[in-house]
Amino acid sequence: MRFLKRLLLISVVLVSCVGCDQVTKSIAVKIMPIKEPVSYLGDTVRLQIAYNRGAFLSIGSFLPEAWRIGIFTIGVSCILLSVLIYGFLSKTRHPSLLLGVALLFAGGVSNLLDRIANGGLVVDFINIGIGPVRTGIFNIADIVITVGAVIFFWATFRQKQMER
Predict the structure, then answer these.
(1) Which of 148, 19, 35, 46 is nearest to 96 (CA)?
(2) Catalytic-labelled residue, pool 21, 43, 114, 124
(3) Candidate list 21, 43, 114, 142, residue with the active-site label
(4) CB 134 within 8 A of CB 18
(5) Could you give the CA distance from residue 25 to residue 131 in angstroms, rounded to a whole number?
(6) Any residues with CB less than 8 A from the CB of 54 and at least 6 apart, and which?
(7) What are residue 20's phi and psi, to 5 degrees?
C-alpha cells in the first residue's frame, strides 16, 4: 500500500475513533451519575462514570504518581509512536493489517489525550455482563484497541499462511 493511502487510512481512522471516543466521554461525564449505575437491557449494560488511574482493569493504578506518568504517559507515547512508524514503514500488502494498526493507534491516542487532559485519569463508563459475570468498566477507545488487536493478529496470521 502506498504512503498516501496509508496516511489517508490512518488519518480517517484516527479522527473518527478519537472523535467518537472523546464525544461519548464528554457526554457521559455531563449526564451520568458517578455513584449509581444506570442500567439498560435487563441490567446487561450498565453506564457509570469511573476515573481510571491505571491501564486495562486498573492495572498499575496503585503505583506512585511519578511511575504512572512515566509508564502511562511517556511510555505509552513511545509505544504509540512506534505503532505509527510501523504502520507507515511495514512492507505488508494486507490492508487489514494496516487497519488493525490504525485502530490500535487511534484508541491509544484517545486514551492518552484523556490521561493528559484529566491529570492522569482516563474516563470509563461502560460495563457489560449477565448477573454477577461482568466486564470491567471501559470506554469506546478500549473497544477500538481490542478490535484493532484482533484484526492485527488475524491479519498477521493470514499473511503468514499465505506466505507458505
Answers:
(1) 148
(2) 124
(3) 142
(4) no
(5) 25
(6) 60, 61, 62, 63, 68, 72
(7) -60, -45
Residue with cell 467518537: 20
Residues 101/149, Cβ–Cβ less than 8 Å:
no
Annotated catalytic residue 21: no
Given a cut of 80, is residue 92 above it in pLDDT?
no
Q: pLDDT digit string (tens) for 48-63? A: 999 999 998 889 999 9
Q: Mean pLDDT, to the nearest integer, of 63-68?
A: 94
Residue 72 confidence (pLDDT): 95
- How far is it, in rounded angstroms, from Cα 128 to Cα 40? 10
Active site residue 142: yes
- In a 13 Å sphere around the CA of 137, the CA atoms on its Cβ side amount to 19
For the segment 21-26, the average pLDDT, to the nearest whole number, is: 97
